[in-house]
User: Fold Tryptophan synthase beta chain-like PALP domain-containing protein from Aeromonas veronii AMC34.
Amino acid sequence: MQASLSSAPERPAILPSPLHPLHHSLLIRYDVELWCKRDDLIHPTISGNKWRKLKYHLQHAREHGKNHLLSFGGAYSNHIHALAAAGCQSGLRTTGIIRGESDAVSNSTLRDAKRWGMDLVFVDRQSYRQRQDPDWLARFDAPGTLIVPEGGSSPLAIPGVAELVSEVPFSPDLWVLPCASGGTLAGLIAGKRDQEQILAIAVLKGGSFIADEVCRLHPAAASIPGWRIALDHHDGGYAKFSPALWQWVQDFSAETGLPLEPIYSGKAMWGLFRELAAGRIAPGSKIVFIHTGGMQGLAGLREQGRL
Assistant:
């Protein structure tokens, strides 16, 4: 990612991202070994799966003469935050189509995005539901514009995520990651070795569509065995979490030293331990958990009085 003068932190990506062993009392009980792939440390503002998913979008923009990135997200979107920073550092204009009312601009996520030069366009929920409709998208399409799907999940995201696999110096029995739009899972399926398994924890309610989305993004995934999506750890739905889950996340972080948030990484780690308790993971497994970032979202949760 090419840096330019901006107020966004200018620092080369840390690659490979660190791989940290985790020590927790329950891991001994379940007879598994657990490492965390700390993609949250790749970059201070373009962290985790966002850096990997945007890498080839930015390369595509440069190679095809695009000077404007346009994408979609909610008022607290990690993707919108990362896209604004990436565009700022790469000298590209950015626009965010934001679901919700314009008074949400006061939150820390969108304040950062505006400070990094992103134009914000607010639309109501009914309009936002049309974000995959070609006729509706046509109003935003223009020469020089690259439309990036919500969450950065497009076929361009696949190779960036797949590169993660070669950064781990051993072959784990199981990869574990949070899953929402399906792009990170699709990329991991593309990069994994044949014998490796993947457990994706859906962080939203009604996530049965995710498997179809994964196969749309990476058609070969339909014939690749060894991956599954756990749908029963959403704890009420996307961006929802109970006080019990948040307490579990805080306790886990205190014991392991691993920072987590309750929307993506914390919910996925909680789901992993529920899967272990249910006996759905083989004893003796070597597990790599992918920390997909999103820690900037904690500020928004605090602003909303939810933490």
Remarks:
- The two ends are 34 Å apart (CA to CA).
